Amino acid sequence: MNQDYIIPNEWSIIEEGYNDSRIKSSESLFSIGNGAMGQRANFEEKYSGETFQGSYIAGVYYPDKTRVGWWKNGYPEYFAKVLNAPNWIGINVFVNDIQLDLFTCKKVVDFRRELNMKEGWLSRSFKATLINDITVKVETKRFLSIDLDEVGAIEYNVTPISGDVEITFQPYLDSGIHNEDSNWDDQFWNTTNVTENSSQAFIEAHTMKTNFHTCTFMESKLFINGKEQNSIPKTESSETKVSFYYPAHVKANETYTIHKFGGYVVDRNHDTNQLVTAAKNTLKLAVDLGFSNLLDQQKQAWANIWEMADITIDGDVKAQQGIRFNIMQLNHTYLGKDARLNIGPKGFTGEKYGGSTYWDTEAYCLPFYMATKNQEVAKSLLTYRYNQLDKAIENAESLGFTNGAALYPMVTMNGEECHNEWEITFEEIHRNGAIAFAIFNYYRFTNDYSYIPEKGLEVLIGIARFWHQRVNFSEDKQKYVMLGVTGPNEYENNINNNWYTNYIAKWCIDYALENIEKVKEEYASDFKRIVEKVNISEAELSSWRKVAENMYFPYSEKHEVFLQQDGFLDKDLVTVENLDKSQRPINQKWSWDRILRSPYIKQADVLQGFYFFEDHFSTEELEKHFDFYEPFTVHESSLSPCVHSIQAAKLGRMEQAYTFYLRTSRLDLDDYNKEVEEGLHITSMAGTWMSIVEGFGGMRIQEDKLSFTPQIPSQWEGYSFKVNFRNQVLKVIVNQGKTHFEVDGNKELQIIVNGEKVTISPNNLVTV
Amino acid sequence: MNQDYIIPNEWSIIEEGYNDSRIKSSESLFSIGNGAMGQRANFEEKYSGETFQGSYIAGVYYPDKTRVGWWKNGYPEYFAKVLNAPNWIGINVFVNDIQLDLFTCKKVVDFRRELNMKEGWLSRSFKATLINDITVKVETKRFLSIDLDEVGAIEYNVTPISGDVEITFQPYLDSGIHNEDSNWDDQFWNTTNVTENSSQAFIEAHTMKTNFHTCTFMESKLFINGKEQNSIPKTESSETKVSFYYPAHVKANETYTIHKFGGYVVDRNHDTNQLVTAAKNTLKLAVDLGFSNLLDQQKQAWANIWEMADITIDGDVKAQQGIRFNIMQLNHTYLGKDARLNIGPKGFTGEKYGGSTYWDTEAYCLPFYMATKNQEVAKSLLTYRYNQLDKAIENAESLGFTNGAALYPMVTMNGEECHNEWEITFEEIHRNGAIAFAIFNYYRFTNDYSYIPEKGLEVLIGIARFWHQRVNFSEDKQKYVMLGVTGPNEYENNINNNWYTNYIAKWCIDYALENIEKVKEEYASDFKRIVEKVNISEAELSSWRKVAENMYFPYSEKHEVFLQQDGFLDKDLVTVENLDKSQRPINQKWSWDRILRSPYIKQADVLQGFYFFEDHFSTEELEKHFDFYEPFTVHESSLSPCVHSIQAAKLGRMEQAYTFYLRTSRLDLDDYNKEVEEGLHITSMAGTWMSIVEGFGGMRIQEDKLSFTPQIPSQWEGYSFKVNFRNQVLKVIVNQGKTHFEVDGNKELQIIVNGEKVTISPNNLVTV
User: Edge-to-edge, what's the strand order for the sheet holding A749-753?
Assistant: First the structure.
């Protein structure tokens, strides 16, 4: 199902021609969102073919009862699921009493769908001949407002072509929806109230168990050839649905238009008892503006996003389309306005992976948001974990840890663990390291130390305590070892001394110790508060030190590489190149045991450590490890190619770097994994951004400055990106042979280019 | 819930006093069976309290759709489940229209339950005062006929004590039953026909999916004070139930009796279309004999079983009761008449563990059946696996193996794998070794080589091929290694080079090679047939040899022991003795990851290898390994204590051996694991037998002879057992200080006692 139907275009995702076999894929690819809600590109009108309905509200989830074959002690009771929320986009369309339904139409021509990335809207147009032989032209436009983020707006135009007809729009709200991914076919929503007045309707419903109260709402305006129609609609309502009927006689080539405004208000943001009032207020704002003004605001909001986040690529329209698609979808998913929210692996584009937050956020997404938004956004992502520290401590306690040791969950919505495979839930503990690393990374990039005494240090202490307890002393090795873990390479489970995990564990302890020292000296009152809270002693710290200083790292003298784990060299070390292509992807072709004992690596593992801690190793060491591990890497995780692309670029292997880049940037658009219909790979999209900025651009922080070693794929004429570095915006334009830098504002910026210090004066293009 | 309500008695399991909190435990403990069917000790009359209903037909199962959290390639589609079969024991009892139900009675006194092990029947008696204040005395007796193994019989007596009453017996059949353990609440039975005539009733039903057709049947006889009553009953039937009403006026102190005959005929043994006819034939045989004669037959059948299988223990009634309970339950479960059947871990006493056959059969049960039955029974157990060889080859193919490699399933009913935890299903592959070992063990004990050229060699070849492909050559170690396995100690998963697995793998290859050689030389026509079938070449055999000769065995020079697996010495080696008691059992107190990285051993692992291959090692080596591993062993498997008991005895540590013995022999009677209500641990009961015969008695095969090194726990006055060795029955009587041997028949038998050859002449007690 590799797709080639998306038409290359610099600023738009475009599909032409109606094909019911790709409806679900397109529903994913044309998804829209505004950080507070998002939805798949489901049709407004009825569609009786195969479809995957999804409209999601940020932070609203359902704790689906865990399903396992054999229960193990410590498994969580539930897996939080993003859940399909009540439908507000629905508009049934009847033409002379026959319902418009593309799946049953006699003919559909000129079908075109466009996701306009520049302006932030989704449109669709087609000519359909219904079973009553009437042909109508339909044009729709839809967007979720960035500014009024509880509201979406739809313009739906129907123009009869073959003669005068009676057209009825039936806009509706429907809370009688279901989730694709439900473990026990539970009911997820309880609808408590369905109300309407002459122009507005409201459905109040709350999620079962979690009791998120919501009000879904709508209001519509009708026009014929642009002239507003003021009829009082007939209404119809049931326990979970309410609809209005707007019939009209429409002459041939006249256009009947409905503007539908709808969306959700949630008790996370409003008083539970005032949801209908809140909905009315929101509707008033939107309706008073009208579709056209709201759309203008939308274009401006997206212009602002692109002003900072855009990456241009010259000479390769597919690459340009790919990178913008990634940047747009990241902004659909998370805008950083709300520290209670985070970045789900599928954003608002599907249900898979259910829970919202993985280590993806810290390892892959943070750099993107740090560089393309103001630094409060990145701080929000850190604060999210700080706010869940107590739950991380409880989680560790449930696994037998004590004394405030914190283990952050593998997957979570509210800080509680959701995942339930023992080899992941209990053993893929390196995630804890990424959360500490993000604190380090934030400070390195922003130079804002305030977060650490205020919040970060408590997190670092909890994490250090976990690692300190998680190792044990091996009498045999006379070192501290870490047994029974799963590293970033999930194709090995329950291994001993995963180098990456051991390394980041030691680093976490060292970094916590360093910051305890610094906070003690420079933030005495914070230090006093923290010590009182976490009750830490010199004896404990010295015990940490002993572990950090005596951590075991498996190493091969022969290969001069750190070993991914103790047993790696016992494997049958046949490289991927020599593996029969018919055997791939191994995660579909091989039984799990065979994968586990193979040398094949799902995503960067040792190399992930070399990515995080690049400064700790020489380029020669990186090269040795890259040449040892990459040949065994099957890149069957969407998070794999970006790290390898960055490292290949660092090693000056631009062809290889470009190959990896292609794989990550159009992963969904070209449906590499044949699963795009389930939703998009949102978190790996941030990896694509890193591939350009850190990979090709070679951006690093060195000596407290931005540093670049710009390179460019031979296939491109040029590319550019911007970075918000400590409140100065630097634009970087790389062409074949030279690089230009420009800094906004009125302050000069010193940077490092290819190892040389360069001063960029404001508003002055500097070419290197 | 440690039980102390079972009254010590040499030949009976007795419970006195009615207590509704122990109903489910007693339903397990008083279970009965005849090898072809079995049932929990559910009451015949209605019981509205908590109960676990179970009546099971050997070989009739349901493939319950697998339930997992995260599907892995290679998982089986279903887990075969023993399933609760239609109820034929039910007899509702009404006294003046009030239904007898012990849970609602005003008073229950003199409640007594007895499972008479000597004679093979279950009885119950009590006086109950119903809510209408009428008091009746009830006495019941029930057995499943060994001789007519499709039939069970019940005698149910009611004697009114407080005055004349109207009593109605309502014997019924009911196929509207359910299973406790169902993954998806599927319907398991489809009832197709409910028929009755004036005295008999039949329910035809088949299992869903597997389509085992059965006919459940009943016929009753009524008596007052022993005088047969010939009334025509009123009948009542529905889609899944049929019952007869036998009302009678019964005077005070008169006894109203029903003899109910019932059971199952199955299309495994009869023509599908002739099941009702078969049921009628069976009923005729039983009813013509009558309850009393059938019971006499039963007593004789059990006398025959005990004649061969009994173990006596003098001076310790609880030990005596315990060992007989084990022997009886093994005989309830499997009598060896049908090579399609095998020994389920819970026999016919519960649903847990679902599938029928585990490696328990070969590793633990075979020795018991070899020594206490004629050798055809043991051969049936081997043939069971031979008949499933094709499925084992398919199973291996589904995991990527080729060329006729066979992997026997972890759990099976029909040869297909049922289990679905990757760390067990795909990795606990040592089970394959036990199946080969059983062939060796059978030949060693019986001297019947014929099985190997006829059937066994094909099994050995399939297994050797599996091991040959399952290892890989480690460049690093320059040896063949086996990565990613779970050994007998299921508290370690996905480990590398489990010594036990590597050792038995090498042994399997060697043993297959040895037998290929022998069959080639001595059974030329069999050899030709086999070679044509399995297509084996000298080149393949030489490749096997290379693996066997270069297998890697982890070893510690320092401790002078083979290591359970590569990483064992890195563990935090705190012995069980030094583990806080509040932390045990660890399988209830610890999360799974913590168990995995601990040094604690669930059941014999390295020591299992020393048990199987005792001759390969010196006693000093055994002692070193025992002293190294036993202190880390938590014995949280019912299969653990017996092996350790045997080895402790071998090392002359009789106190320790006795402690282990106690733990195994009354595991269920004293409910060590607080779970007896789920059913009995049938397969470990064979381990109990081994603890006495191989442990205390020290029985081995040496130089082709039975050999003994008799010891006796200081707590006992004496014990005795019998062994059927190559069609000669040897009785061994061990007292404090001396041992007596006696051989049946007219042939002398040479044995070895404490290393010395001793000749036992027939029918002559020889004292050593």
Answer: A700-702, A705-708, A749-753, A756-760
